[in-house]
Predict the structure.
Amino acid sequence: MRTQVGIVGAGPAGLMLSHLLHLEGIESVVLEAHSRHYVEQRVRAGVLEQGTVDLLIETGVGDRLKQQGLIHRGIELSFGGRRHRIDFSNLTPGRAITVYAQHEVIKDLIQARLEAGGLIHFAVSDISLHGLGTSTPAIGFRKGDELRELECDFIAGCDGSHGISRASIPARALKVFERAYPFAWLGVLAEAAPASEELIYTYHERGFALFSMRSPKITRLYLQCAPGEDMANWPDARIWEELQARLATSDGWRPAEGPILQKGITGMRSLVAEPMQFGRLFLAGDAAHIVPPTGAKGMNLAIADVRVLARALAEFYASGRRELLDRYSATCLRRVWKVQRFSWWMTSMLHRFDA
Ligand code: FAD
Ligand code: PHB
């Protein structure tokens, strides 16, 4: 098998890259460890920034987003039971955030790629990267009982924080900056109409809590918990009790309750790997950097990376010029460090470090 760009991972970074390359007339093949069903149901991010929304719409994958996305022109920060509204309309030139689940973006991108004849191999295993320092890199993988090799011009490592791409770069060629936080988030999806129209980020003496949503019928909530927390210690009644205690405001507002449809625990880390390229391998999204979710930045950053990468690859294929490719890491890292700083600051402002 041969293609121009071999992409490891069908998350937002890998799928968006494949879509952008297709629009530039560049071929790619995506290799994903999980099944299509799994990646289309996996509950992750929910907040898209304006730049992400604009890109999805401009590139023809924003129809469902335009119909179903909830546009928010502000957020609320709550301290001591009192809310403070951050009004995006007054503070920005008309920019907003849109609540639209990450797995819905994934569904839209997979459908667009498949309709355009794009190749995505789901449920592959034993992925290995070869010849990264040569002009003919290759990806080895297993599909069913068959071992295969995909030869390419370039490899995009879009396989998230636990993938093999970053680990395939020799340690001497990579600098990793990392910080683990002494807490995690317990997230729930509840069948309850959101009791507030906007997101509420809450600092409370019992720990951070976040009120968010997915649709007019589904509320998304998070609360700060211990990093190694066992879900067995969190029956639904305890989750509601804790959420009510932290989120209730002095004017009597409280979140509406309903059946919990899904719950999970997410650790909190900041990580940056420098540089984001090694020979013909380019890292994008969580494969290169992780931010704590407090700033709602991770997926947006993943999309920003692949926009830079797609432009650089387009220039290479159109003119043979390598300048943008050579500058890929430096260009991305300028934004990455700003976003790291913002996410760390927002996390520090809203969590208890001694809870
Ligand atoms: P991923 O989405 O992790 O995709 C990587 C893909 O690679 C996966 O499909 C994985 O199965 C696959 N893979 C892994 N290893 C291999 C392998 N060896 N071979 C082949 N495939 C492999 N971000 C926001 O912008 N806004 C938010 O509101 C927000 N909220 C969040 C809330 C939570 C609770 C969490 C956990 C994250 C949140 N994020 C948010 C972050 C966001 O979800 C991630 O930053 C985003 O998923 C990164 O996309 P990615 O494509 O880089 O990586
Ligand atoms: C979410 O709705 O899942 C969400 C919202 C804001 C964040 C993180 C996650 O900061």
Notes: Residues 54 and 198 are 21 Å apart (CA to CA). The chain has a mean pLDDT of 97.
